[in-house]
Design goal:
- The structure holds 2 protein chains of 2 kinds.
- By secondary structure, chain A is an all-alpha fold.
- Chain A has 21 helices and 2 strands.
- The N and C termini of chain A lie far apart (72 Å).
- Chain B has 2 domains: 1-75; 77-110.
- In chain B, 70% of the residues lie in helices and 0% in strands.
- The termini of chain B are far apart.
- The chains are: A mainly alpha, B mainly alpha.
- The interface between A and B is medium-sized, with 39 and 24 residues.
- The structure holds protoporphyrin IX containing FE and copper (II) ion.
- Residues 284, 287, 330, 333-334 of chain A line the site of copper (II) ion.
- Protoporphyrin IX containing FE binds next to α4, α5, α14 and α17 of chain A.
- Chain B: One of its GO terms (molecular function) is proton transmembrane transporter activity.
- Chain B: It comes from Paenibacillus zeisoli.
- Chain B: Belongs to the cytochrome c oxidase bacterial subunit 4 family.
- Chain B: It is found in: Cell membrane.
Chain lengths: 660, 110
C-alpha cells in the first residue's frame, strides 16, 4: 500500500530538481498566506460577492490585468532561466530536457496567458467606456470567458509541479508532440490548458464584436468611433475566424494521443506537416490579434498628448480592417523551408510584404499627428516613443524574413528569435504598457508615480536592445534557436560567448525594469497622485467624461454623440459657454451577478485534469458538471434588475461633489 | 444588454424559431451524422466515394445548423449576418484551398 502511494506520488509530482522543490515550497507558502489573509480579515464573502461572481466589465478587466501581470512574471522568470543558462559556454544550470520545458512554457505563457489576457484586460477596462455603454453586450459570457481563461492558465501552470511540463515547443509540433515521442502528460496539459482558455478567448471576441456593433452611444456612427475601439473590432474579427482553427487542430492532436488516431503521425496515412500548416493558420493571425489593439492604444495616446486630432483617421481604420483580412493569407511564411512548391513560397512571400504597407501607413500617421503638435512627454507617451523605432526595425527584419530564399538562412536561427521578440516586446508589450499607464487613473483613480516609471521605461528600453540586438548577429553566426548549450569552441573561437553574455545582461535589465514597475505600483497605491477630475490627461474620448474610477453603471445618462473625439467637443462647447442640456436620470437596467461562470469553469478544470491523466472517473463528472451549469443558466430568468433614480442621484452627487 | 434589451426580449419582437423548426433541424442533423458513420463502419463505398460523401454531408450539416439553429434569416437588419457569412466563406475556402495547394508538394516528393 505504502509502496503504491510512493510510486504514484513520484510520477504524479515532478521530482528530482531543486528548482522545482523551491517552486513547490513557494507555491504552498503563497497559498497558505492567501488563505490566512482572507480568513483573518474576513474577506471571503467580499471576494465572492464583489469579484468571483461579478459580471461588471471593469472588475473583470482588473482581474484579467492581475492575472496577466502574474503570468508576465512567470514567463519572465522562464526567460531569465534560459538566458542564465546561455550566458557562457558549457553552463550546467539547466539540463537539456529542463531547457526544453522552459522555452515551451515561456513561449506558450507569454503569448496565450500573458499577451491575450493583458489585451482582454484593456478591452474590458476601456471599450464600454469609450463607446458610452453601460456594459458589454453579454456580461455573463464575459465573466465566463475570464474564468475559463484563468482555469486554462492554472491547468497549464500546474504541469510545472504535477505530472511534468510540456516540452515540444510553444506550438507543439508533431511528431515530437505525439504519444510516440512525448509519452508523458505534459502535452496533455498543453492541449487542455489552451483548449479551455480558448473557449473563453473566442467568446470574448464575439462579445466585443457585438458590443462595438450594437452598444455605441446614440449618435456615435462607426466612423466617429475612437480608434482603440476600431482596433478591438478588427482584433475581434480575427479572433472569431482564427481561434476555431486552433481548437480543431489541437482537438485532432488530442485524438491522435488519446484515441490512437493518425492525423499527424508518421505512419498510417498521417502527415505531421498538415499540423504545421493548420496551426499557423491560427498562429499568424494571432500575432495580429495581439498587435492591432496596441496600434489602437498608440493612436489614442499620440492624439491625446499631441493635443491634436489623429492624422488620417480614415486611413487608420482602413488599414486596420485591411490587416485583419490580409493576416489570413500569410501563414506559410512560417514554413518556407518545408519544401512546398516555389509558387507557394512566392505567393506567401509577397502577401507578407504587402501587409507591411498598411502597417507603414499607420506609423506615418502617428508621426504626422505628432508633427507640430503640443507634445507632453508622459509615461504613456514615453512607451509610444519607444515603440516607434523598435517596431520599425522589427518590421524591417520581418520583411527580410519574408524573402523566401533568404529565409533558408534565417529560419530557426537567433535572427528569428530577435525579430519576433522585437515586434512582440517593442510592439505588443510596450503598447499594452502604454495603455495600462494611460488608462490606469481611469481604472483605479490615481496616477502611477512618474520617477519610478521613467526608471522602468529606460531599463526596459535599453535592456531590450542590449538583449536582442546581439541575437541578430548570433543568428548570422549560426546559432540556432532552442539550443540549450554550446561548447567553448563555438563560444570563444567563433565568438558566440561575448554576444550571449551581453544578451543575458540585457535580459536582466528588463527584469530589473519589471521590478521597478512592481515597486511603482505598490508605491503609487499608497502615495500616487489622486485623480479627482476624471480627466487627468486632457482626453478626447468619452471615457474621460466620467469620474475615475467609473461608477458601477458607467454613465448616469447616455451620452449623445455628434462628432468624433466626443468629449473634446463637449469641452470646447463648455469653453464657448454653451450650456449642456439639463440631465434627467432614469432607472438603469443592469445584469445581476452570477456564480455559474465560476462553477462551470471549475467543472471544466476538473474535466481537463481528468483528460490529462486519462482518468475518466474524473473527466466525465467534470463534463456533467459543465452540462448542469449550462442547463441552470438556460432556466434562470432572474438575471437583471434596475438601479432606482434616487440611488443614481446619491451616487452622482457624491462623485461629482468630489470632482467639481 | 443593460441598455437596450435583455437576452429574452427583442426590440422588434421577432421570435427565436418554433419547437417544430428545432425538432426538424435536430432530426436533419442527426441523420446527416449517421449516414457517414454507417458508410464508414460498414465499408459501403470505396475510398473516394466515401470521402466525397462525407464532405457533402458536412456542407449540408453546416447549412442545417445555420438555418435551423443559428437563425441566419432573422434579425432586424440581416446585413451583419450576411457580411460575416461572406468573410467566413472566404476564410473557409482559403483554409481548404490553401492547405490543398501547400500540401500538394507531398505527392510530388513521395
Ligand atoms: C522579457 C524579455 C524576454 C526574454 C529575455 C525572452 C527570452 C527568450 C528566450 C531566451 C527564448 C528561447 C530561445 C531558444 O532557446 O530558442 C525565447 C523564446 C520565445 N519567446 Fe521570449 N523572451 C522575452 C519576452 C517574450 C515575450 C513578451 C513574448 C511574447 C509575447 C515571448 C515569446 C517567445 C516565444 C513564442 C518563444 C519561442 C518558444 C519556442 O521556441 O517554442 N518572449 N524567449
Ligand atoms: Cu506570421
Amino acid at each position: 500500500m505504502w509502496e503504491n502511494i510512493k510510486d504514484f506520488a513520484s510520477t504524479f509530482f515532478v521530482t528530482g530538481d531543486p528548482l522545482i522543490y523551491g517552486a513547490d515550497v513557494s507555491i504552498a507558502l503563497t497559498s497558505i498566506a492567501i488563505v490566512f489573509v482572507l480568513t483573518y480579515f474576513k474577506k471571503w464573502t467580499w471576494l465572492w460577492r464583489e469579484w468571483i461572481t461579478t459580471v461588471d466589465h471593469k472588475r473583470i478587466g482588473i482581474m484579467y490585468l492581475i492575472a496577466s501581470l502574474l503570468m508576465l512574471f512567470r514567463g519572465g522568470v522562464d526567460a531569465l532561466l534560459m538566458r542564465t543558462q546561455l550566458a557562457l559556454p558549457n553552463m550546467k544550470f539547466l539540463q537539456a530536457d529542463h531547457y526544453n520545458a522552459v522555452f515551451t512554457t515561456h513561449g506558450t505563457i507569454m503569448i496565450l496567458f500573458m499577451a491575450m489576457p493583458m489585451m482582454f484586460a484593456l478591452f474590458n477596462l476601456v471599450v464600454p467606456l469609450q463607446l458610452g455603454a453601460r456594459d458589454v453586450a453579454y456580461p455573463f459570457l464575459n465573466s465566463l470567458s475570464f474564468w475559463l481563461f484563468l482555469m486554462g492558465a492554472m491547468l497549464f501552470n500546474l504541469s510545472f509541479v504535477i505530472g511534468g511540463s510540456p516540452d515540444a515547443g510553444w506550438l507543439s509540433y508533431p511528431p515530437l508532440s505525439e504519444l510516440s515521442h512525448s509519452p508523458g502528460v505534459g502535452e496533455n496539459f498543453y492541449i487542455w490548458g489552451i483548449q479551455i482558455s480558448g473557449i473563453g478567448s473566442l467568446a470574448t471576441g464575439i462579445n466585443f464584436l457585438v458590443t462595438i456593433l450594437k452598444m455605441r452611444a446614440p449618435g456615435m456612427k462607426m466612423m466617429k468611433m475612437p480608434l482603440f475601439s476600431w482596433s478591438v473590432l478588427s482584433s475581434s474579427i480575427i479572433i472569431i475566424f482564427a481561434f476555431p482553427i486552433l481548437t480543431v487542430t489541437l482537438a485532432l492532436l488530442f485524438l491522435d494521443r488519446f484515441l490512437g488516431a493518425h492525423f499527424f503521425t508518421m505512419d498510417l496515412g498521417g502527415n505531421p506537416m498538415m499540423y504545421v500548416n493548420l496551426i499557423w493558420m491560427w498562429g499568424h493571425p494571432e500575432v495580429y490579434i495581439v498587435v492591432l489593439p496596441a496600434f489602437g492604444i498608440f493612436s489614442e495616446v499620440v492624439a491625446t498628448f499631441s493635443k491634436k486630432k489623429i492624422f488620417g483617421y480614415n486611413s487608420m481604420v482602413f488599414s486596420m480592417m485591411l490587416i485583419s483580412i490580409v493576416s489570413f493569407f500569410t501563414w506559410a511564411h512560417h514554413f518556407f523551408t518545408m519544401g512546398a512548391s516555389a509558387n507557394v513560397n512566392v505567393f506567401f512571400a509577397i502577401s507578407t510584404m504587402v501587409i507591411g504597407i498598411p502597417t507603414g501607413v499607420k506609423i506615418f500617421n502617428w508621426l504626422f499627428t505628432m508633427f507640430r503638435g503640443r507634445i507632453t512627454i508622459t509615461q504613456p507617451m514615453l512607451w509610444t516613443l519607444g515603440f516607434i523605432p523598435c517596431f520599425a526595425v522589427g518590421g524591417a527584419t520581418g520583411v527580410m524574413l519574408a524573402v523566401a530564399p533568404a529565409d533558408y538562412q534565417y529560419h530557426n536561427s537567433y535572427f528569428l528569435i530577435a525579430h519576433f521578440h522585437q515586434v512582440l516586446i517593442g510592439g505588443v508589450v510596450f503598447g499594452y504598457l502604454a495603455g495600462i499607464y494611460y488608462w490606469w487613473p481611469k481604472v483605479f483613480g490615481f496616477k502611477l508615480n512618474d520617477r519610478l516609471g521613467k526608471w522602468a521605461f529606460w531599463l526596459w528600453n535599453i535592456g531590450f536592445y542590449v538583449c536582442f540586438m546581439p541575437q541578430y548577429a548570433l543568428g548570422f553566426m549560426g546559432m540556432t534557436r532552442r539550443l540549450y548549450t554550446y561548447g567553448s569552441d563555438t563560444g570563444w573561437d567563433l565568438g558566440w560567448a561575448p554576444l550571449n553574455l551581453i544578451s543575458t545582461v540585457g535580459a536582466f535589465l528588463m527584469g530589473l525594469g519589471f521590478i521597478f514597475q512592481v515597486w511603482q505600483i505598490s508605491y503609487s497605491i499608497r502615495k500616487g497622485e489622486r485623480d479627482l477630475t476624471g480627466d487627468p490627461w486632457g482626453g478626447r474620448t468619452l471615457e474621460w467624461s466620467i469620474p475615475s474610477p467609473a461608477p458601477m453603471y458607467n454613465f448616469a445618462v447616455e451620452p449623445q454623440v455628434t462628432t468624433d473625439d466626443a468629449w473634446w467637443k463637449v469641452k470646447e462647447d463648455r469653453a464657448k459657454g454653451i450650456k449642456p442640456a439639463p440631465v434627467k436620470y432614469e432607472p438603469i437596467h443592469m445584469p445581476k451577478n452570477s456564480a455559474i461562470p465560476f462553477v462551470m469553469s471549475v467543472c471544466w478544470f476538473i474535466a481537463g485534469f481528468g483528460f490529462v491523466f486519462d482518468w475518466m472517473w474524473m473527466a466525465i463528472p467534470g463534463l456533467i458538471g459543465v452540462a448542469i451549469c449550462l442547463l441552470a443558466r438556460s432556466f434562470s430568468y432572474d438575471t437583471d434588475y434596475y438601479i432606482p433614480v434616487d440611488e443614481i442621484e446619491r451616487t452622482e452627487a457624491a462623485l461629482r461633489g468630489r470632482t467639481v | 444588454m443593460s441598455q437596450h434589451n435583455t437576452g429574452h426580449e427583442h426590440a422588434s419582437g421577432e421570435s427565436h424559431g418554433s419547437l417544430k423548426s428545432y425538432v426538424i433541424g435536430f432530426i436533419f442533423s442527426i441523420v446527416l451524422t449517421i449516414i457517414p458513420l454507417v458508410i464508414v463502419m460498414n465499408g459501403l463505398l470505396n475510398k473516394t466515394q466515401t470521402v466525397i460523401t462525407i464532405m457533402i454531408m458536412a456542407v449540408l450539416q453546416l447549412i442545417v445548423q445555420l438555418f435551423f439553429f443559428m437563425h441566419i434569416r432573422e434579425g432586424e437588419k440581416p446585413r451583419w449576418n450576411v457580411m460575416t457569412l461572406i468573410v467566413g466563406i472566404i476564410i473557409v475556402l482559403t483554409i481548404v484551398g490553401g492547405s490543398i495547394w501547400i500540401m500538394s508538394f507531398n505527392s510530388t516528393v513521395q
